[in-house]
Amino acid sequence: MNEIKKILIPIDFSEHSLFALEYAKLFAEKFNAELILLNVVEPIMFVADLTMGQVNIPSIEGELIQKSEDKVNEIVNALKDKYNVRGLVRLGKSYTEIIEFAKSENVDLIVIGSHGHTGVEHLLFGSTAEKVIRKSTCPVLIVRPQPQK
């Protein structure tokens, strides 16, 4: 087993991804590893009409990226006194960006939250976590939603 030096946490600011971050912090403490928070903003596509197909609206994407960067920086700033942490935002398809980033940065572990969708929800929304598991070249820890109290 390789030493864990870099831990990637895909974060969408949901309670599920923040819960996964709590697990990742435990690993970072144990292995003195770097935490890397990655938020992926998916491109916004609108159907203009049947002749033009889909139209991309970059101004909305720019605003979403800026808001995501602000949120990521807020989390990083809250953690930086105790952890070696950095955060970034990318534009693209979530699972693709997560996998490509993990490869390019030689990430040792991905810790990702699961929304726990089943049945029809799973068919409609798919699972980023499931796609990351199938295509990742490094170990992936799936953190299931917290049990309801």
From TrEMBL:
Question: SUPFAM superfamilies given for it?
Answer: Adenine nucleotide alpha hydrolases-like
Q: What is its main location?
A: cytoplasm
Q: Which domain of life is it from?
A: Bacteria
State the compartments where it is located.
Cytoplasm
Q: Which residues form the UspA domain?
A: 4-144
The record, for CDD domains, names: USP-like
Q: Which UniProt keywords apply?
A: Cytoplasm
| Family named by the database record | Belongs to the universal stress protein A family.
Q: What is this protein identified as? A: Universal stress protein
Naturally occurring in which organism (per UniProt): Candidatus Kryptonium thompsonii
